[in-house]
Amino acid sequence: MSNTFCVTITHCKTDPDKATLGFVVANAAQGSEKETMVFLSSDGVYCAVSEEIAKVNEGAPFAPLKELIDKFIEAGGKIYVCTPCMKKRRISETDLIASATPAGGAALVEWLSAGSPVASY
Asked: What is the rounded distance in angstroms from the CA atom of residue 20 to the CA atom of residue 1?
């Protein structure tokens, strides 16, 4: 059994529910003592932009996206943001929350090739 877990999120503005659920699962994995990585691509890159994060609150029983992301980061979770997806949306590294790391697809491939399970939202 792998000691790692990956959640890929491709939605934020287009489907805030999927962004929220992705971070709910990421927190569950991190809380289960799995080294957890969230890879944000496509519209999901907005999950790393503070002003967009603040807009997502799906309501009970879910916490606002900002709280879910903060909890994930505080627990040691890693957030990688697809560099080409950022460029397409004119998002610069300075637009990202401090704990998000721009990365290409190679970072995701490396994580998964070590046997990590993945959930996608």
From this structure: 26
CATH value at residue 8: 3.40.1260.10
pLDDT in tens, the chain (121 residues): 689 999 999 999 999 999 999 999 999 999 999 999 999 999 999 999 999 999 999 888 999 999 999 999 999 999 999 999 999 999 999 999 999 999 999 999 999 999 999 999 9
Distance from C-alpha of 51 to C-alpha of 47, rounded to nearest angstrom: 9
Q: What's the total number of domains in the chain?
A: 1
Assess contact for 120 and 26: CB atoms under 8 A. Answer: no
Nearest to 96 by CA among 108, 116, 82, 115: 82
**Which range of residues forms the domain containing residue 68?**
4-120
